[in-house]
Specification:
Layout: H1 3-23, H2 32-40, H3 56-70, H4 74-84, H5 87-91, H6 95-111, H7 115-127, H8 133-149, H9 153-166, H10 172-184, H11 188-204, H12 211-223, H13 227-240, H14 244-256, H15 260-272, H16 279-291, H17 295-307, H18 315-327, H19 331-343, H20 349-360, H21 364-377, H22 383-396, H23 400-411, H24 417-441
Helix pairs in contact: 1-8, 1-10, 3-4, 3-6, 4-6, 6-7, 7-8, 8-9, 9-10, 10-11, 11-12, 12-13, 13-14, 14-15, 15-16, 16-17, 16-18, 17-18, 18-19, 19-20, 20-21, 20-22, 21-22, 22-23, 23-24
C-alpha cells in the first residue's frame, strides 16, 4: 500500500466509524437527536451558548428519518429531511433544529459516497448560530476529514487547525491526521512535529502507538537523512511489530551509516527467520559476508538460494557463488557454479576465471581449454594474466613448448613481463633437470 493510500484509508475508516456512531442506536431515546441534546447539557464547555430548544414535533420527525436511515431506506429519510428544510419548513425551525436536520442530511450524503454533498451539509451545520460547542467541535473534525478524503489537503489542514483551537484536549489521532495533511503538502517539518507529538502522547500514557504512526515518522526521518532517529523507530517496530521489511530496512540504514557489522547482523537475523525470499536480498547478504571475509557463508547463502530457486539464474549470480566458494577453498563447489556463469555469459572473462578454478583443482587440461575459449571469445580484462594461467596449465601437463609460447605472449604486456621470464627460465631448468635424470637412469 502506498503512503497516499494509507492516508486515504485512515480518513475513510475514521469517517465510517463516525457515521456508525450516528445510526447504531435503534431506540429513538438514544438517537442522533438525543445525543445532540446530551451534548448541549455538558458542563465542560469553555463558553456559554444559549442553545434554542429542540421541540418535540421536530424531534419526532428527525427520529422517523433516522429510523429509515438505520433501515438503509435513505430515499425515505431524505424525503422527510427535504420537506423539513423546504422553504416553508425552514422558516418553522430554529437554528439548533436546522443544525440537526443538516447533520442527518450530511450523513445520508456520506452513505451515498457523495462526499462533496456531505461536506456542504456539515458546513451548514456549523453555520447555524448558538449550536452546542460539542456539536461544532465534532462537526469541524468531520469536515476536516472530508477535505482529506477529497485530497483537498490544505483545506483539510486549515479546518483541522480551527478544530484544534476549539478543542481543549486533542487526542493523538488528531495530531496524526494533521501530520498526514502536512505530509501531502510537503511541509515535512510540521508533519514530523505532529506525528512525534502523537507518539509521545501514547507512550506517555503507557499505550503502544500504532504501527502506521511509527512508519510516518520513519518516512520523515529518512527524508531528512536523520538515520539515527529512523533507526530508533525501526528498532521499535522490530520489537513491537516484527516484520521482514523492518529488519531489511534497518540493515540498509546501517549500511548508509557504514556500519557493516550491524548491517550484516540484521540481515543474518532476518535470514534465520526465513524472511529473505528475494534474489536481491540473498545476493546482498552474500556480498556482506564477502566484505566481512566470510566467503564460506557467502557461498552457502548463494548455493541454497539457487537450489531453492529463490536466486535468479543469471551469470552474475553464478559467478558470485563460484567466487565465494573459490575464496573459501571449496574448489569442487566452485567449479559447477563458474561453469554455469561462463555458459550464460557473452564474454570470455568468465571462461578465464573458470580456467583459474580448474587450475586450482588440478584439472589442467580443462583449465587450458577454458582459458583458450575465453581468449577466443574476447572481452577478457587482462589477457596477459589469462596467458600466464594458460602457460601454467600446459607446464603442469608437461607440454613445455606450448607453455613457453603462452608465457612469451603474456610477457608482451609489461605488467606480466617479469613473471613470464621467470616461468620461461623455470621451464628451461625443469627440462635440464629431466635430461640429467635420464642420464642417471641410462
Amino acid at each position: 500500500m502506498t503512503f497516499f493510500s494509507f492516508c486515504r484509508l485512515t480518513v475513510l475508516v475514521t469517517l465510517a466509524m463516525f457515521a456508525t456512531v450516528l445510526i447504531d442506536r435503534a431506540s429513538p431515546s438514544s438517537s442522533l437527536i438525543s445525543q445532540a441534546v446530551a451534548q448541549d447539557e455538558k458542563k465542560e464547555q469553555r463558553e456559554t451558548r444559549r442553545t434554542p430548544a429542540l421541540r418535540n414535533k421536530v424531534y419526532e420527525r428527525l427520529a422517523e428519518a433516522q429510523v429509515l436511515a438505520e433501515e438503509k431506506n435513505y430515499a425515505g429519510a431524505k424525503e422527510i429531511l427535504d420537506d423539513m428544510i423546504s422553504e416553508e419548513g425552514k422558516r418553522a425551525l430554529n437554528s439548533y433544529e436546522l443544525a440537526n436536520v443538516y447533520n442527518l442530511q450530511a450523513f445520508l450524503s456520506y452513505s451515498r459516497e457523495d462526499y462533496q454533498g456531505s461536506l456542504r451539509y456539515y458546513e451548514l451545520v456549523i453555520a447555524q448560530p448558538d449550536i452546542p460547542l460539542a456539536m461544532e467541535i465534532n462537526t469541524r473534525f468531520t469536515i476536516a476529514q472530508l477535505y482529506f478524503v477529497q485530497e483537498k489537503w490544505q483545506q483539510g489542514i486549515d479546518a483541522l487547525l480551527v478544530w484544534f483551537d476549539l478543542n481543549e484536549k486533542p487526542n493523538a489521532g488528531a495530531y496524526v491526521l494533521l501530520a498526514q495533511g502536512y505530509y501531502q503538502v510537503k511541509d515535512y517539518n510540521s508533519a514530523l512535529q505532529n506525528v512525534e507529538t502523537a507518539i509521545s502522547m501514547h507512550e506517555g500514557e503507557g499505550k503502544l502507538p500504532k504501527e502506521q504512526w511509527y512508519n510516518l515518522a520513519r518516512f520523515l526521518y529518512f527524508d531528512r537523512e536523520d538515520f539515527d532517529s529512523a533507526l530508533e523507530v525501526l528498532n521499535t517496530l522490530i520489537i513491537y511489530y516484527p516484520k521482514k521489511q523492518y529488519w531489511v530496512q534497518a540493515s540498509h540504514l546501517y549500511g548508509e551509516k557504514k556500519d557493516e557489522t550491524r548491517q550484516l547482523a540484521l540481515m543474518e537475523a532476518a535470514y534465520e527467520q526465513g524472511f529473505l525470499d528475494r534474489s536481491s536480498e540473498l545476493v546482498t547478504m552474500s556480498y556482506l559476508y564477502l566484505n566481512a571475509e566470510a566467503p564460506y557463508y557467502a557461498g552457502s547463502v548463494m548455493q541454497k538460494g539457487l537450489d531453492d530457486e529463490l536466486v535468479e539464474e543469471k551469470s552474475k549470480n553464478y559467478e558470485l557463488a563460484g567466487s565465494a566458494w573459490a575464496q573459501a577453498r571449496e574448489v569442487e563447489k566452485s567449479i559447477p557454479m563458474m561453469e554455469k556463469a561462463a555458459a550464460k555469459s557473452d564474454e570470455g572473462e568468465l571462461y578465464v576465471r573458470l580456467g583459474n578454478v580448474y587450475l586450482d583443482g588440478d584439472q589442467f587440461a580443462k583449465a587450458a581449454e577454458s582459458v583458450q575459449k575465453g581468449l577466443k571469445r574476447g572481452g577478457v580484462k587482462r589477457p596477459d594474466q589469462a596467458r600466464l594461467v594458460l602457460g601454467m596449465s600446459y607446464f603442469n601437463m608437461g607440454e613445455y613448448n606450448k607453455a613457453r609460447r603462452a608465457f612469451r605472449d603474456a610477457g608482451k604486456d609489461e605488467r606480466s613481463e617479469k613473471y613470464s621470464k621467470q616461468w620461461i627460465k623455470y621451464i628451461a631448468s625443469e627440462e635440464q633437470r629431466q635430461i640429467e635424470l635420464q642420464k642417471d637412469i641410462f
